[in-house]
Amino acid sequence: MKKLRLLGFDAKPWSDKCEPDRIFLTRSRKRWENYDGESFLIFADDWKSQLKELEVRYSISKEIKPFTRCVECNTELIDVNLEEVRTIIPERVFLSTDRFKKCPNCGRTYWMGTHVEKIKDDFKEVFDADEF
């Protein structure tokens, strides 16, 4: 679910009630068989292969909006200026970037740290893309 949220998809945990505007993704054959709405049974064990399965079935790469959702609560992030986050971010971050996003629901703050390049490289590999 975290990877889907990093890609900008509205992803939330399992619920046994059918939600018509959602696709239920699962590795559980039993849940898949008993779900009334649209669902997709994922076979792969590792997240990269799972995303590749979703790409083959749903062409999700066409809908990607990376780093636009909170990975904790799924809320769409908003842009905030440096002054709004100055007191809550490490000084080294304050000195190295001026673009920040914040979750209006849980308050978590995001920025393009060094780890983001690794995440982008992983997604480039998954979607066989030159850029991400």
What is the string of helix and strand elements?
HEHEHEHHEEH
Strand content: 5-15%
- Low-pLDDT stretches are none
Spatial arrangement of strands, main beta sheet: 3-4-5
Count of DSSP helices? 6
Mean pLDDT: 93
How large is the radius of gyration?
A: 17 Å
Question: What descriptive keywords fit this protein?
Answer:
alpha+beta, three-stranded antiparallel beta sheet, globular
What does this protein look like?
There is one protein chain. This protein has helices at residues 2-6, 29-34, 47-58, 82-85, 91-96, 115-127; strands at residues 24-26, 39-41, 78-80, 100-102, 109-111. It is an alpha+beta fold and 132 residues long. The strands form two sheets. A three-stranded antiparallel sheet has the order 3-4-5. A two-stranded parallel sheet has the order 1-2. Strand 1, helix 2 and strand 2 form a beta-alpha-beta unit. The longest helix is centred in the last third of the chain and has 13 residues, at 115-127. The model has no long low-confidence stretch (mean pLDDT 93).
